[in-house]
Amino acid sequence: MQVASPLPPPDSNGVIDYNVIKISADIQENYKIFKEIFKNDNTVVIRVFENQQDKDIQFLGISINGMVKPNSIYQSITSPLMQKKFDKNESYFTQAHREIISSLDLSIKTDVKDIVKAILYGDTAIMVSGGTQAILVETKGWSTRSISEPDSEKNLKGPREGFTEAMIINASLIRRRIQTSDLKFQYMNLGTRTNTFACIVYLDSLVDKKVLTEFVRRLEKISSDSVLDANYIEELIKDNRHSPFKTIGSTEKPDVAAARILEGRIALIVDGTPIVITLPYLFIENFQSPDDYYLNYYFASIGRLLRIIGFFITISLPSVYLALVTYHQEMLPTQMVTAIAESSKGVPFPTFVECLIMLFVFEILRETGIRMSSKIGQALGIVGGLVVGQAAVEAKIVSAPMVIVIAFTGITGLITPRLSGAAILIRTLSLIFTAILGFYGFFLFMITVLIHVMSLKSFSYEYISLSFKPQSIKDIYVRAPQWQLKTRPKFAKDKYRR
Protein backbone atom coordinates (compact mmCIF):
# COMPACT_ATOMS: atom_id res chain seq x y z
CA MET A 1 0.00 0.00 0.00
CA GLN A 2 1.47 3.36 -1.06
CA VAL A 3 1.84 5.91 1.75
CA ALA A 4 0.54 9.39 0.99
CA SER A 5 3.26 12.03 0.75
CA PRO A 6 3.21 14.71 3.49
CA LEU A 7 4.18 17.28 0.85
CA PRO A 8 1.90 19.10 -1.62
CA PRO A 9 2.22 18.05 -5.28
CA PRO A 10 4.89 19.96 -7.30
CA ASP A 11 3.93 22.53 -9.91
CA SER A 12 4.43 22.16 -13.67
CA ASN A 13 8.17 22.91 -13.28
CA GLY A 14 8.60 20.23 -10.63
CA VAL A 15 9.01 22.77 -7.81
CA ILE A 16 7.24 22.23 -4.46
CA ASP A 17 5.57 25.22 -2.82
CA TYR A 18 7.10 25.14 0.66
CA ASN A 19 4.91 28.02 1.84
CA VAL A 20 1.95 25.67 2.42
CA ILE A 21 4.01 23.31 4.63
CA LYS A 22 3.94 23.99 8.35
CA ILE A 23 6.27 22.77 11.11
CA SER A 24 4.37 20.38 13.37
CA ALA A 25 4.59 20.09 17.15
CA ASP A 26 4.99 16.34 16.57
CA ILE A 27 8.63 15.35 15.95
CA GLN A 28 7.66 12.20 14.03
CA GLU A 29 5.49 14.24 11.67
CA ASN A 30 8.39 16.64 11.02
CA TYR A 31 10.66 13.65 10.44
CA LYS A 32 8.33 12.43 7.67
CA ILE A 33 8.15 15.89 6.07
CA PHE A 34 11.92 16.41 5.84
CA LYS A 35 12.54 12.78 4.93
CA GLU A 36 10.26 13.34 1.94
CA ILE A 37 11.86 16.70 1.07
CA PHE A 38 15.35 15.15 1.01
CA LYS A 39 14.24 11.84 -0.48
CA ASN A 40 16.97 9.94 -2.39
CA ASP A 41 19.68 12.24 -0.97
CA ASN A 42 22.07 10.12 1.08
CA THR A 43 24.21 13.10 2.14
CA VAL A 44 21.44 14.49 4.35
CA VAL A 45 21.47 13.27 7.95
CA ILE A 46 18.02 13.34 9.61
CA ARG A 47 18.08 12.00 13.15
CA VAL A 48 15.56 11.79 16.00
CA PHE A 49 17.12 11.64 19.46
CA GLU A 50 15.83 11.85 23.03
CA ASN A 51 16.69 13.57 26.28
CA GLN A 52 18.25 11.05 28.68
CA GLN A 53 16.49 12.59 31.69
CA ASP A 54 13.03 12.54 30.08
CA LYS A 55 12.35 10.18 27.16
CA ASP A 56 9.22 12.14 26.22
CA ILE A 57 11.36 15.11 25.13
CA GLN A 58 12.46 14.40 21.56
CA PHE A 59 14.55 16.36 19.11
CA LEU A 60 14.94 16.29 15.33
CA GLY A 61 18.34 17.22 13.90
CA ILE A 62 18.97 17.78 10.19
CA SER A 63 22.37 18.48 8.60
CA ILE A 64 24.39 17.58 5.51
CA ASN A 65 27.53 15.47 5.54
CA GLY A 66 30.56 17.29 4.21
CA MET A 67 29.12 20.77 4.84
CA VAL A 68 29.12 20.79 8.64
CA LYS A 69 31.63 20.37 11.47
CA PRO A 70 30.59 17.09 13.18
CA ASN A 71 32.49 17.87 16.39
CA SER A 72 30.74 21.22 16.85
CA ILE A 73 27.33 19.57 16.34
CA TYR A 74 28.08 17.03 19.07
CA GLN A 75 29.64 19.48 21.52
CA SER A 76 27.23 22.40 21.17
CA ILE A 77 23.96 20.72 20.14
CA THR A 78 23.34 16.99 20.58
CA SER A 79 25.30 16.36 23.77
CA PRO A 80 23.80 19.31 25.75
CA LEU A 81 20.26 18.54 24.55
CA MET A 82 20.53 14.86 25.50
CA GLN A 83 22.08 15.42 28.95
CA LYS A 84 20.39 18.60 30.19
CA LYS A 85 17.50 18.29 32.63
CA PHE A 86 14.53 20.32 31.32
CA ASP A 87 12.12 22.33 33.46
CA LYS A 88 8.62 21.01 32.73
CA ASN A 89 7.08 24.37 33.69
CA GLU A 90 8.72 26.13 30.77
CA SER A 91 8.65 25.55 27.01
CA TYR A 92 11.19 22.93 25.95
CA PHE A 93 11.85 24.88 22.76
CA THR A 94 12.59 28.11 24.68
CA GLN A 95 14.96 26.32 27.06
CA ALA A 96 16.82 24.70 24.18
CA HIS A 97 17.18 28.01 22.36
CA ARG A 98 18.11 30.25 25.28
CA GLU A 99 19.95 28.01 27.70
CA ILE A 100 21.17 24.76 26.21
CA ILE A 101 22.48 25.09 22.65
CA SER A 102 25.87 26.77 23.03
CA SER A 103 26.45 28.71 19.83
CA LEU A 104 26.76 32.42 19.16
CA ASP A 105 24.98 32.23 15.81
CA LEU A 106 21.41 31.04 16.37
CA SER A 107 18.20 31.94 14.59
CA ILE A 108 14.59 30.79 14.73
CA LYS A 109 12.69 30.06 11.52
CA THR A 110 9.11 29.02 10.89
CA ASP A 111 9.06 28.81 7.08
CA VAL A 112 10.12 25.44 5.70
CA LYS A 113 11.65 27.16 2.67
CA ASP A 114 14.06 29.16 4.87
CA ILE A 115 14.91 26.07 6.91
CA VAL A 116 15.72 24.03 3.79
CA LYS A 117 17.91 26.86 2.42
CA ALA A 118 19.87 27.06 5.66
CA ILE A 119 20.39 23.28 5.80
CA LEU A 120 21.63 23.24 2.21
CA TYR A 121 24.15 25.96 3.06
CA GLY A 122 25.71 24.10 5.98
CA ASP A 123 23.56 25.04 8.97
CA THR A 124 21.99 22.48 11.29
CA ALA A 125 18.25 22.59 11.98
CA ILE A 126 16.96 21.48 15.39
CA MET A 127 13.28 20.92 16.23
CA VAL A 128 12.02 20.27 19.75
CA SER A 129 8.96 18.42 21.00
CA GLY A 130 6.00 20.75 21.26
CA GLY A 131 7.62 23.51 19.19
CA THR A 132 6.38 24.66 15.79
CA GLN A 133 9.62 26.37 14.84
CA ALA A 134 13.17 25.31 14.04
CA ILE A 135 16.42 26.48 15.63
CA LEU A 136 19.10 27.06 12.97
CA VAL A 137 22.65 26.68 14.28
CA GLU A 138 25.65 27.89 12.29
CA THR A 139 27.80 24.77 11.79
CA LYS A 140 29.38 25.37 8.37
CA GLY A 141 32.56 23.40 7.91
CA TRP A 142 33.16 22.57 4.26
CA SER A 143 36.65 22.54 2.75
CA THR A 144 37.83 25.60 0.85
CA ARG A 145 40.83 26.51 -1.25
CA SER A 146 43.53 28.33 0.68
CA ILE A 147 44.05 32.05 0.09
CA SER A 148 46.66 32.62 -2.62
CA GLU A 149 47.67 35.20 -5.20
CA PRO A 150 45.47 35.03 -8.33
CA ASP A 151 47.35 34.22 -11.54
CA SER A 152 45.37 36.76 -13.56
CA GLU A 153 46.29 39.75 -11.32
CA LYS A 154 49.86 39.24 -10.14
CA ASN A 155 51.60 42.16 -8.45
CA LEU A 156 55.20 43.33 -8.51
CA LYS A 157 54.58 44.87 -5.10
CA GLY A 158 51.66 45.00 -2.72
CA PRO A 159 49.31 42.40 -1.16
CA ARG A 160 49.44 38.83 -2.47
CA GLU A 161 46.05 37.70 -1.18
CA GLY A 162 43.28 36.64 -3.53
CA PHE A 163 39.63 35.78 -3.14
CA THR A 164 38.55 32.14 -2.78
CA GLU A 165 35.33 30.33 -3.71
CA ALA A 166 33.84 30.82 -0.21
CA MET A 167 31.66 33.92 0.12
CA ILE A 168 32.13 34.20 3.90
CA ILE A 169 35.93 34.19 3.58
CA ASN A 170 35.79 36.79 0.79
CA ALA A 171 33.57 39.06 2.90
CA SER A 172 36.04 38.79 5.79
CA LEU A 173 38.95 39.74 3.50
CA ILE A 174 37.15 42.99 2.63
CA ARG A 175 36.04 43.60 6.21
CA ARG A 176 39.65 43.27 7.40
CA ARG A 177 40.67 46.13 5.12
CA ILE A 178 37.74 48.45 5.84
CA GLN A 179 37.14 48.32 9.58
CA THR A 180 34.14 50.58 9.98
CA SER A 181 30.48 50.07 10.85
CA ASP A 182 29.69 52.14 7.75
CA LEU A 183 30.58 49.08 5.64
CA LYS A 184 27.35 47.23 4.87
CA PHE A 185 26.78 43.62 3.78
CA GLN A 186 23.41 42.58 2.33
CA TYR A 187 22.71 38.90 1.56
CA MET A 188 20.43 37.62 -1.16
CA ASN A 189 19.81 34.44 -3.18
CA LEU A 190 20.19 34.19 -6.95
CA GLY A 191 19.04 31.41 -9.29
CA THR A 192 15.64 29.80 -8.89
CA ARG A 193 17.15 26.32 -8.56
CA THR A 194 20.73 26.89 -7.39
CA ASN A 195 19.73 29.48 -4.73
CA THR A 196 23.27 30.80 -4.90
CA PHE A 197 24.18 33.06 -1.99
CA ALA A 198 25.43 36.51 -2.91
CA CYS A 199 26.47 39.50 -0.84
CA ILE A 200 26.21 43.18 -1.78
CA VAL A 201 28.97 45.26 -0.16
CA TYR A 202 29.14 49.06 0.01
CA LEU A 203 29.94 52.01 2.24
CA ASP A 204 26.64 53.56 3.28
CA SER A 205 27.97 57.14 3.49
CA LEU A 206 29.60 57.03 0.04
CA VAL A 207 27.36 54.91 -2.19
CA ASP A 208 24.92 56.50 -4.62
CA LYS A 209 21.56 55.20 -3.35
CA LYS A 210 20.02 55.42 -6.84
CA VAL A 211 22.73 53.13 -8.21
CA LEU A 212 22.27 50.75 -5.27
CA THR A 213 18.49 50.61 -5.77
CA GLU A 214 18.87 50.00 -9.50
CA PHE A 215 21.48 47.31 -8.90
CA VAL A 216 19.23 45.45 -6.45
CA ARG A 217 16.31 45.78 -8.87
CA ARG A 218 18.29 44.19 -11.70
CA LEU A 219 19.47 41.37 -9.45
CA GLU A 220 15.92 40.64 -8.34
CA LYS A 221 14.80 40.48 -11.97
CA ILE A 222 17.19 37.59 -12.71
CA SER A 223 14.96 34.58 -13.40
CA SER A 224 17.64 32.11 -14.45
CA ASP A 225 17.58 28.61 -12.98
CA SER A 226 21.30 28.68 -12.28
CA VAL A 227 23.80 31.31 -11.16
CA LEU A 228 27.13 29.51 -10.85
CA ASP A 229 29.58 32.33 -11.50
CA ALA A 230 29.85 36.11 -11.43
CA ASN A 231 29.86 36.25 -15.24
CA TYR A 232 26.30 34.85 -15.28
CA ILE A 233 25.21 37.95 -13.38
CA GLU A 234 27.42 40.35 -15.31
CA GLU A 235 25.84 39.42 -18.65
CA LEU A 236 22.32 39.65 -17.26
CA ILE A 237 22.57 43.08 -15.58
CA LYS A 238 24.99 45.07 -17.76
CA ASP A 239 23.61 48.19 -19.47
CA ASN A 240 24.37 47.31 -23.09
CA ARG A 241 24.27 43.53 -23.32
CA HIS A 242 25.54 43.38 -26.91
CA SER A 243 28.53 45.66 -26.46
CA PRO A 244 31.95 43.95 -26.51
CA PHE A 245 33.17 46.35 -23.82
CA LYS A 246 32.90 45.57 -20.11
CA THR A 247 30.62 47.97 -18.25
CA ILE A 248 30.85 46.01 -15.00
CA GLY A 249 34.19 45.49 -13.31
CA SER A 250 35.56 42.32 -11.78
CA THR A 251 38.56 41.44 -9.64
CA GLU A 252 40.09 38.55 -7.71
CA LYS A 253 42.02 40.78 -5.28
CA PRO A 254 40.60 41.98 -1.94
CA ASP A 255 42.71 45.15 -1.97
CA VAL A 256 41.31 46.15 -5.36
CA ALA A 257 37.72 45.50 -4.26
CA ALA A 258 38.29 47.46 -1.04
CA ALA A 259 39.81 50.39 -2.96
CA ARG A 260 36.81 50.53 -5.29
CA ILE A 261 34.35 50.38 -2.39
CA LEU A 262 36.22 53.28 -0.77
CA GLU A 263 35.62 55.24 -3.98
CA GLY A 264 31.85 54.84 -3.58
CA ARG A 265 31.39 51.76 -5.74
CA ILE A 266 29.33 48.67 -4.98
CA ALA A 267 30.80 45.15 -4.85
CA LEU A 268 28.97 41.85 -5.26
CA ILE A 269 30.44 38.65 -3.80
CA VAL A 270 29.01 35.46 -5.30
CA ASP A 271 29.40 32.18 -3.44
CA GLY A 272 31.33 29.56 -5.40
CA THR A 273 33.55 31.91 -7.42
CA PRO A 274 36.66 33.99 -6.59
CA ILE A 275 35.47 36.77 -8.92
CA VAL A 276 33.97 39.84 -7.21
CA ILE A 277 31.87 42.24 -9.31
CA THR A 278 32.27 46.01 -8.87
CA LEU A 279 30.24 48.86 -10.33
CA PRO A 280 29.96 51.46 -11.77
CA TYR A 281 32.85 50.67 -14.10
CA LEU A 282 34.68 53.19 -16.30
CA PHE A 283 36.56 52.56 -19.54
CA ILE A 284 39.87 53.80 -18.14
CA GLU A 285 39.81 51.02 -15.50
CA ASN A 286 40.72 48.58 -18.30
CA PHE A 287 44.18 50.19 -18.28
CA GLN A 288 44.63 50.50 -14.54
CA SER A 289 46.61 47.98 -12.54
CA PRO A 290 46.89 47.40 -8.76
CA ASP A 291 50.63 47.93 -9.18
CA ASP A 292 49.97 51.55 -10.17
CA TYR A 293 49.32 52.39 -6.52
CA TYR A 294 52.16 50.35 -5.02
CA LEU A 295 54.93 51.68 -7.29
CA ASN A 296 56.44 55.13 -7.78
CA TYR A 297 53.94 57.38 -9.61
CA TYR A 298 56.44 58.13 -12.42
CA PHE A 299 56.87 54.44 -13.19
CA ALA A 300 53.13 53.78 -12.74
CA SER A 301 52.22 56.59 -15.14
CA ILE A 302 54.59 55.30 -17.81
CA GLY A 303 53.15 51.80 -17.45
CA ARG A 304 49.59 53.07 -17.82
CA LEU A 305 50.45 55.12 -20.91
CA LEU A 306 52.11 52.05 -22.44
CA ARG A 307 48.92 50.02 -21.86
CA ILE A 308 46.77 52.69 -23.53
CA ILE A 309 49.16 52.94 -26.51
CA GLY A 310 49.38 49.15 -26.70
CA PHE A 311 45.60 48.81 -26.97
CA PHE A 312 45.43 51.27 -29.87
CA ILE A 313 48.31 49.48 -31.59
CA THR A 314 46.71 46.04 -31.26
CA ILE A 315 43.39 47.17 -32.79
CA SER A 316 44.85 49.35 -35.55
CA LEU A 317 48.30 48.13 -36.64
CA PRO A 318 47.13 45.33 -39.03
CA SER A 319 44.58 47.69 -40.64
CA VAL A 320 47.11 50.51 -41.03
CA TYR A 321 49.63 48.11 -42.59
CA LEU A 322 46.97 46.75 -44.94
CA ALA A 323 45.89 50.26 -46.00
CA LEU A 324 49.47 51.43 -46.61
CA VAL A 325 50.52 48.36 -48.58
CA THR A 326 47.32 47.95 -50.61
CA TYR A 327 45.99 51.50 -51.20
CA HIS A 328 48.46 54.15 -50.06
CA GLN A 329 51.98 53.04 -51.02
CA GLU A 330 52.89 56.68 -51.71
CA MET A 331 52.87 57.33 -47.98
CA LEU A 332 55.77 54.90 -47.43
CA PRO A 333 59.44 55.52 -48.20
CA THR A 334 60.52 54.06 -51.56
CA GLN A 335 63.03 51.67 -50.00
CA MET A 336 60.40 50.28 -47.62
CA VAL A 337 57.91 49.74 -50.45
CA THR A 338 60.63 47.94 -52.42
CA ALA A 339 61.54 45.73 -49.44
CA ILE A 340 57.91 44.79 -48.80
CA ALA A 341 57.32 44.04 -52.48
CA GLU A 342 60.46 41.88 -52.59
CA SER A 343 59.42 39.85 -49.55
CA SER A 344 55.92 39.36 -51.00
CA LYS A 345 57.15 37.73 -54.22
CA GLY A 346 55.75 34.25 -54.55
CA VAL A 347 53.11 34.70 -51.83
CA PRO A 348 49.84 33.42 -53.34
CA PHE A 349 47.49 35.41 -51.12
CA PRO A 350 46.63 39.11 -51.08
CA THR A 351 47.70 41.11 -48.03
CA PHE A 352 44.20 40.99 -46.50
CA VAL A 353 44.08 37.16 -46.60
CA GLU A 354 47.67 36.97 -45.30
CA CYS A 355 46.67 39.09 -42.33
CA LEU A 356 43.58 37.01 -41.53
CA ILE A 357 45.58 33.76 -41.71
CA MET A 358 48.28 34.99 -39.35
CA LEU A 359 45.80 36.48 -36.88
CA PHE A 360 43.88 33.19 -36.87
CA VAL A 361 47.07 31.20 -36.25
CA PHE A 362 48.15 33.56 -33.46
CA GLU A 363 44.78 33.27 -31.71
CA ILE A 364 44.95 29.47 -31.93
CA LEU A 365 48.42 29.48 -30.35
CA ARG A 366 47.28 31.91 -27.64
CA GLU A 367 44.19 29.86 -26.81
CA THR A 368 46.20 26.64 -26.74
CA GLY A 369 48.77 28.20 -24.43
CA ILE A 370 46.01 29.28 -22.03
CA ARG A 371 44.35 25.83 -21.94
CA MET A 372 47.58 23.90 -21.41
CA SER A 373 49.40 23.75 -18.08
CA SER A 374 51.35 26.94 -17.38
CA LYS A 375 54.88 25.70 -18.14
CA ILE A 376 53.94 23.75 -21.27
CA GLY A 377 51.62 26.55 -22.42
CA GLN A 378 54.35 29.19 -22.26
CA ALA A 379 56.84 26.99 -24.14
CA LEU A 380 54.19 26.08 -26.72
CA GLY A 381 53.31 29.72 -27.33
CA ILE A 382 56.93 30.79 -27.86
CA VAL A 383 58.14 27.76 -29.83
CA GLY A 384 54.91 27.50 -31.80
CA GLY A 385 55.06 31.15 -32.81
CA LEU A 386 58.69 30.94 -33.91
CA VAL A 387 58.30 27.65 -35.80
CA VAL A 388 55.01 28.52 -37.50
CA GLY A 389 56.15 32.03 -38.42
CA GLN A 390 59.49 30.87 -39.86
CA ALA A 391 57.92 27.95 -41.72
CA ALA A 392 55.18 30.16 -43.17
CA VAL A 393 57.72 32.68 -44.48
CA GLU A 394 59.98 29.98 -45.98
CA ALA A 395 56.98 28.27 -47.60
CA LYS A 396 55.93 31.62 -49.12
CA ILE A 397 52.50 31.42 -47.48
CA VAL A 398 52.96 34.85 -45.88
CA SER A 399 55.56 37.58 -46.15
CA ALA A 400 58.12 38.38 -43.44
CA PRO A 401 56.78 41.93 -42.75
CA MET A 402 53.34 40.46 -42.13
CA VAL A 403 54.74 38.09 -39.48
CA ILE A 404 56.39 41.07 -37.75
CA VAL A 405 53.16 43.10 -37.82
CA ILE A 406 51.03 40.26 -36.42
CA ALA A 407 53.61 39.36 -33.77
CA PHE A 408 53.74 42.95 -32.55
CA THR A 409 49.93 43.13 -32.66
CA GLY A 410 49.65 39.98 -30.55
CA ILE A 411 52.22 41.13 -27.99
CA THR A 412 50.56 44.52 -27.48
CA GLY A 413 47.20 42.75 -27.13
CA LEU A 414 48.50 40.87 -24.09
CA ILE A 415 49.06 44.16 -22.23
CA THR A 416 45.31 44.72 -21.76
CA PRO A 417 43.72 41.31 -21.03
CA ARG A 418 40.41 42.89 -19.94
CA LEU A 419 39.94 44.19 -23.49
CA SER A 420 41.11 41.09 -25.36
CA GLY A 421 37.62 40.13 -26.59
CA ALA A 422 36.77 43.66 -27.72
CA ALA A 423 40.22 44.01 -29.35
CA ILE A 424 39.78 40.85 -31.45
CA LEU A 425 36.35 41.95 -32.68
CA ILE A 426 37.40 45.53 -33.45
CA ARG A 427 40.61 44.40 -35.16
CA THR A 428 38.77 41.96 -37.44
CA LEU A 429 35.99 44.36 -38.44
CA SER A 430 38.53 47.14 -38.94
CA LEU A 431 40.48 44.90 -41.34
CA ILE A 432 37.33 44.22 -43.38
CA PHE A 433 36.45 47.91 -43.67
CA THR A 434 40.06 48.79 -44.52
CA ALA A 435 40.24 46.07 -47.19
CA ILE A 436 37.21 47.64 -48.89
CA LEU A 437 37.88 51.39 -48.55
CA GLY A 438 41.47 51.77 -47.40
CA PHE A 439 42.14 54.49 -44.83
CA TYR A 440 38.66 55.90 -45.42
CA GLY A 441 37.13 52.63 -44.22
CA PHE A 442 39.56 52.43 -41.30
CA PHE A 443 38.73 55.91 -39.98
CA LEU A 444 35.02 55.46 -40.65
CA PHE A 445 34.96 52.30 -38.55
CA MET A 446 37.10 53.78 -35.75
CA ILE A 447 34.80 56.80 -35.53
CA THR A 448 31.86 54.38 -35.24
CA VAL A 449 33.61 52.53 -32.40
CA LEU A 450 34.40 55.82 -30.64
CA ILE A 451 30.76 56.94 -30.87
CA HIS A 452 29.65 53.57 -29.48
CA VAL A 453 32.07 53.74 -26.53
CA MET A 454 31.09 57.33 -25.73
CA SER A 455 27.41 56.37 -25.74
CA LEU A 456 27.91 53.59 -23.18
CA LYS A 457 26.86 54.01 -19.57
CA SER A 458 27.54 51.99 -16.45
CA PHE A 459 24.53 52.30 -14.17
CA SER A 460 23.65 55.78 -15.48
CA TYR A 461 27.26 57.06 -15.34
CA GLU A 462 29.23 57.92 -18.47
CA TYR A 463 31.66 55.20 -19.52
CA ILE A 464 34.20 57.79 -20.75
CA SER A 465 34.76 61.14 -19.06
CA LEU A 466 35.66 64.09 -21.31
CA SER A 467 36.55 66.46 -18.48
CA PHE A 468 40.07 67.90 -18.54
CA LYS A 469 40.11 69.47 -15.08
CA PRO A 470 43.25 68.52 -13.10
CA GLN A 471 41.29 66.65 -10.40
CA SER A 472 39.26 64.83 -13.08
CA ILE A 473 42.27 63.42 -14.95
CA LYS A 474 44.54 62.85 -11.92
CA ASP A 475 44.04 59.09 -12.12
CA ILE A 476 43.12 58.52 -15.77
CA TYR A 477 45.94 58.81 -18.30
CA VAL A 478 48.60 59.00 -15.60
CA ARG A 479 48.68 58.33 -11.86
CA ALA A 480 49.19 61.50 -9.87
CA PRO A 481 51.12 61.47 -6.57
CA GLN A 482 49.14 60.36 -3.51
CA TRP A 483 49.08 63.87 -2.03
CA GLN A 484 47.24 65.12 -5.14
CA LEU A 485 44.58 62.41 -5.12
CA LYS A 486 42.16 64.56 -3.14
CA THR A 487 38.76 63.66 -4.57
CA ARG A 488 36.76 60.52 -5.23
CA PRO A 489 35.11 59.66 -8.57
CA LYS A 490 31.89 61.47 -9.51
CA PHE A 491 29.60 58.61 -8.41
CA ALA A 492 30.64 58.87 -4.73
CA LYS A 493 28.26 60.78 -2.45
CA ASP A 494 31.16 62.30 -0.49
CA LYS A 495 33.61 63.66 -3.08
CA TYR A 496 36.51 64.44 -0.76
CA ARG A 497 38.90 61.97 0.81
CA ARG A 498 39.51 62.20 4.52
Cα end-to-end separation:
74 Å
- The number of E-state strands comes to 12
Output the helix-strand order: HEEHHEHEEHEEHHEHEEHHHHHHHEE
Query: Helical element count?
Result: 15
| Silhouette | elongated
Query: What structural category arises from helix and sheet content?
Result: alpha+beta
Mean pLDDT: 82
Radius of gyration: 30 Å
Helix content: 40-55%
Instruction: List unreliable stretches of 5+ residues.
Output: none
Proportion in β-strands: 5-15%
Tell me the major beta sheet: 5 strands, antiparallel
Number of domains: 3
| Strands in their spatial order, largest beta sheet | 1-2-4-5-3
Description:
The structure is a single chain. A hairpin with a 2-residue loop joins β11 and β12. The chain is α+β, with helices and mostly antiparallel strands and 498 residues long. The protein has three domains: 120 residues, no CATH class; 131 residues, no CATH class; 162 residues, no CATH class. The strands form three sheets. The protein has a five-stranded antiparallel beta sheet with strand order 1-2-4-5-3, with helices on both faces. A five-stranded antiparallel beta sheet has the order 6-7-9-10-8, with helices on both faces. It has a two-stranded antiparallel sheet with strand order 11-12. The protein contains 15 helices and twelve strands. α5 packs across α8, α9 packs antiparallel against α13 and α11 crosses α13. The chain is elongated.
